[in-house]
UniProtKB/TrEMBL annotation, chains A, B:
<keyword id="KW-0786">Thiamine pyrophosphate</keyword>
<feature type="region of interest" description="Disordered">
    <location>
        <begin position="319"/>
        <end position="339"/>
    </location>
</feature>
<comment type="similarity">
    <text>Belongs to the TPP enzyme family.</text>
</comment>
<dbReference type="InterPro" id="IPR012001">
    <property type="entry name" value="Thiamin_PyroP_enz_TPP-bd_dom"/>
</dbReference>
<dbReference type="GO" id="GO:0050660">
    <property type="term" value="F:flavin adenine dinucleotide binding"/>
</dbReference>
<dbReference type="GO" id="GO:0044281">
    <property type="term" value="P:small molecule metabolic process"/>
</dbReference>
<dbReference type="InterPro" id="IPR011766">
    <property type="entry name" value="TPP_enzyme_TPP-bd"/>
</dbReference>
<dbReference type="GO" id="GO:0030976">
    <property type="term" value="F:thiamine pyrophosphate binding"/>
</dbReference>
<dbReference type="Pfam" id="PF02776">
    <property type="entry name" value="TPP_enzyme_N"/>
</dbReference>
<protein>
    <submittedName>
        <fullName>Thiamine pyrophosphate protein domain protein TPP-binding</fullName>
    </submittedName>
</protein>
<feature type="domain" description="Thiamine pyrophosphate enzyme TPP-binding">
    <location>
        <begin position="377"/>
        <end position="513"/>
    </location>
</feature>
<dbReference type="InterPro" id="IPR029061">
    <property type="entry name" value="THDP-binding"/>
</dbReference>
<dbReference type="Pfam" id="PF02775">
    <property type="entry name" value="TPP_enzyme_C"/>
</dbReference>
<dbReference type="GO" id="GO:0003984">
    <property type="term" value="F:acetolactate synthase activity"/>
</dbReference>
<feature type="domain" description="Thiamine pyrophosphate enzyme N-terminal TPP-binding">
    <location>
        <begin position="3"/>
        <end position="108"/>
    </location>
</feature>
<dbReference type="InterPro" id="IPR045229">
    <property type="entry name" value="TPP_enz"/>
</dbReference>
Length: 515, 515
């Protein structure tokens, strides 16, 4: 069957299990768009801004454990998507990132939209290829899927010159093989066993797959036998948690608190976690958070089979076959009028519905939400992974596309939410079941703290750069602009009422919470 | 006087004539922010999104003919600013683009926000340097200013590791020398004279400085003597036009119309313009727009002194000392009820106030606005230069900062405006005198045409990707969300009334024009 390159690529993507394309196309992508018409099995989700598309692909990948594709327009379109591709890279989310490009022969003319797309793509891409011909582009697509899925997972960027889309293609390419996760060597197990039997304090520092749910269950068995402690990374791509799961705290974000959390350990065993380092450098403070006397050892890197490594370690130390996690119980609703971090956290603990997906870009507001929600109904928690703000609303959009039967709750700092609020429109258009909670403190609160952390002594002009209250953002109006219903709440009882209402209905809803 | 690197940099920027910083800072930029407090003469303008900052710096540079600085947060912040830096690059706008980075010693730890900033910056930067020490950073800043101003003008990116900001600096660096615009060689004048005397049809194709105002006056004298025709590029960074100026048409955007506009010429003399090429490639159509038989010759490239070249050419052909431009007269207000491209263009021609700055990202809607506004009161017209949509609202913001006494009017396509609408908030915060007109056709209208141009035969799913009407964007609500008053108009008389009201008051105002 004769088909052009674009159609051969779309059919190859569908054959390789890629079912969703988050798009913000332009002229050079029109053949790809037209091919979507002719191919069954690829859902096209339009985004108003590329950061919405890439953030949605990240949220989708975290929940589906397989890639969506994006469709971006040349270098500037990729540029707009870079911030959330950076987050996806840090979350190790598989994404097939398709970037349209001028026809191969047209690039030499340096038309206005011409730019060095590869240079822009390289920093966020685990795999990068520019299509050379229409006959090769299906195989390029198959290779991109395999590269995205290759452990530990990543962004595979395929740059698609327009003529490789419109000229005659070669038909559907078969899926390319995906290497399995590597098994950690026996020596690594032995080293970890020695640490656990040393009689000295040991931390099991969990990240990536090891922290999700099953990994924590095995780690808890090891802890029960050996007395080791468990700690998650500061940011985690996905944790399945709530009632019946193993509770876990996270390494604190502030450097001094993080160092205090690690200072008593003599051994830190990394399982899917990377070396604990400060998010930012500060004058006079170290970058590495573990004490210098501590043996930091990677049992399993993110590309390894972390579950297998934990299970072998559990058996090697003679861990029990199962331990019952503690049951903190669901928090009750708080009383009083006051909206603050504590009361809001308690409301979340009480009201998060079973099966909910919480997309957390709370920044300063949400640092204490984690313990109080441990006793909530079972749910999944996704965090901002790469520190690039503006992920929350797009990530929720993608998670809702991946899991249409689960309620999605976005915990969104106001300053960060303003980067990519356009994704609310996609939520309305696709009738996604997402409740967005905006923590409205009308400032870049994190920067007020950071200004103090770096030792700077701010005056009016500096503080003015961190303030969002002149004029105040009117979030319900913004939401209405994008076709989403919204309310502002200023008291705790009103928040509880409106949140209950939003959770009981289907479809997108936004609540601006005055803090 | 002891000062840290950040303060030495800010003082150097002010000493070098950089008076405005469009900021969206993060933790790694806190010392720069703190330094703004201690230094007189640098206005800090906060943007909610980096594309707003870079687009504003572009608009500022076009009107001030000198650079503003930006302040962006690491690789992802730069990423968000890339689309409008791409436009600035194509407009040859001088910008000192400052990108914060982790402390030099912290980069090796690969903290979550670490990325290859240079790789991201290179495609949009005429000059690129990463600061190595606090003592060198003032000189780096002086070099960046000179590089931004070096003809033809460009984006100078200075990456600023946090420790080069907080450690002790070296004091203010003196301004670095800026090379003058090169004089075109006499041979180029001779070649152009020969073409003009050949008796064959000649086009003077004007861009960059040659198209602004003075260049057109000289070109018109040459045309009066020789019979040559004048034509501007499709996109122009800045044209000063309206009553009393030399009228000029632009090379049409659609390839077939552009080829038709050029097909009769045997000589095309480029003055500040680049080679006429198709914006996009299309199957079966050429990339170069000039006929193969045509001699295309660059009298002056953008880095040359184009005014000098035109004046020498005028003298060489014996052009008259002055010619009076035709006086088309200000259009009268149209009658009837119907809002369409023609009636809207006529309203603009009638109501654009003297001294207004028109920031044009009209895309499809505005292709016919140019002729009908030639007779308007004298004004300045800025266009989307690099094809990267989402420039209009930010560019207007920067132009208004540069020219507080001039009315700014943004002509904004709705699809494009949704990329960077956050800049409305900066307009409100800074009380900028900007009227934003949104052409609300609720679709990516340009892509409907392009889908046909590339020969694709769209179905429902493809057309759905180009539609913005489900749900419709409510622009007055969006504006209110950002603190700007807005109205939607659906009839011509209502549009005229509301536009008159908006032009008569000061401060930002938005009108959604139903088309």
């Amino acid at each position: 069957m004769a088909m052009n390159g674009a159609e051969s690529l779309v059919r190859t993507l569908v054959a390789g299990g890629v079912e969703v394309c988050f798009t913000n196309p332009g002229t050079s992508e029109m053949h790809f768009v037209a091919a979507l018409d002719r191919v069954e099995g690829m859902r096209a989700v339009l985004c108003l801004f590329e950061g919405g598309a890439t953030g949605a692909a990240d949220g989708y990948a975290r929940m589906a454990d397989k890639p969506a594709s994006t469709l971006l327009h040349l270098g500037p379109g990729l540029g707009n998507g870079i911030a959330n591709l950076h987050n996806a890279r840090r979350a190790r989310s598989p994404i097939v990132n398709i970037v349209g490009e001028h026809a191969t022969y047209h690039r030499a003319y340096d038309a206005p939209l011409t730019s060095d797309i590869e240079s822009l793509a390289r920093p966020v891409s685990a795999w990068l290829r520019t299509g050379l011909s229409a006959r090769a582009v299906a195989a390029d697509g198959a290779a991109a899927i395999a590269a995205a899925l290759a452990p530990p997972g990543g962004v595979a960027t395929l740059i698609l010159p327009a003529d490789t889309a419109w000229e005659e293609g070669s038909g559907v390419a078969p899926p390319a093989p995906v290497p399995p996760r590597a098994r950690v060597p026996d020596e690594a197990i032995t080293h970890a066993v020695a640490a656990l039997r040393s009689g000295e304090p040991v931390l099991l520092h969990l990240g990536d797959r090891a922290v999700r749910g099953e990994g924590r269950r095995i780690a808890a068995r090891i802890a029960a036998k050996t007395g080791a402690q468990l700690l998650a990374m500061t940011s985690n791509a996905r944790i399945d948690r709530g009632a019946g799961t193993v509770p876990i705290e996270r390494l604190p974000y502030p450097v001094d608190l993080a160092r205090a959390a690690l200072e008593s350990y003599r051994h830190i065993i990394l399982v899917g976690a990377t070396l604990p380092v400060a998010f930012f450098a500060y004058p006079g403070k170290p970058s590495a958070l573990a004490p210098p006397t501590c043996d930091v050892f990677a049992l399993a890197n993110p590309e390894h089979d972390q579950i297998d490594a934990l299970e072998r370690l559990a058996q090697a130390v003679g861990a029990p076959a199962a331990v019952d996690p503690p049951s903190p119980g669901r928090p009750s609703l708080p009383g009083g009028e006051r909206l603050d971090q504590d009361s809001v956290g308690q409301v979340l603990g009480a009201l998060i519905p079973e099966g909910a997906i919480v997309c957390d870009e709370s920044i300063t507001t949400g640092r204490n939400f984690f313990p109080v929600t441990q006793g909530a109904a079972p749910h999944t928690w996704l965090q901002l992974s790469g520190g690039s703000i503006g992920l929350g609303i797009p990530m929720a959009t993608g998670a809702a596309v991946a899991c249409p039967d689960r309620k999605v709750i976005t915990l969104q700092a106001d300053g960060s939410g303003l980067y990519t609020a356009q994704s609310l429109w996609t939520q309305a258009r696709e009738k996604l079941d997402v409740v967005t909670l905006i923590w409205s403190n009308r400032s870049y609160a994190i920067l007020r703290a950071e200004l103090a952390n770096v030792g700077a002594n701010p005056g009016r002009k500096a503080l003015d750069m961190l303030s969002l209250d002149d004029p105040p953002i009117d979030w319900p109006s913004l939401a209405r602009g994008y076709g989403v219903e919204g309310r502002r709440v200023e008291t705790l009882p009103h928040f509880i009422d409106v949140l209950r209402h939003a959770l009981a209905r289907r479809g997108p809803f936004l609540i601006e919470v005055a803090l």
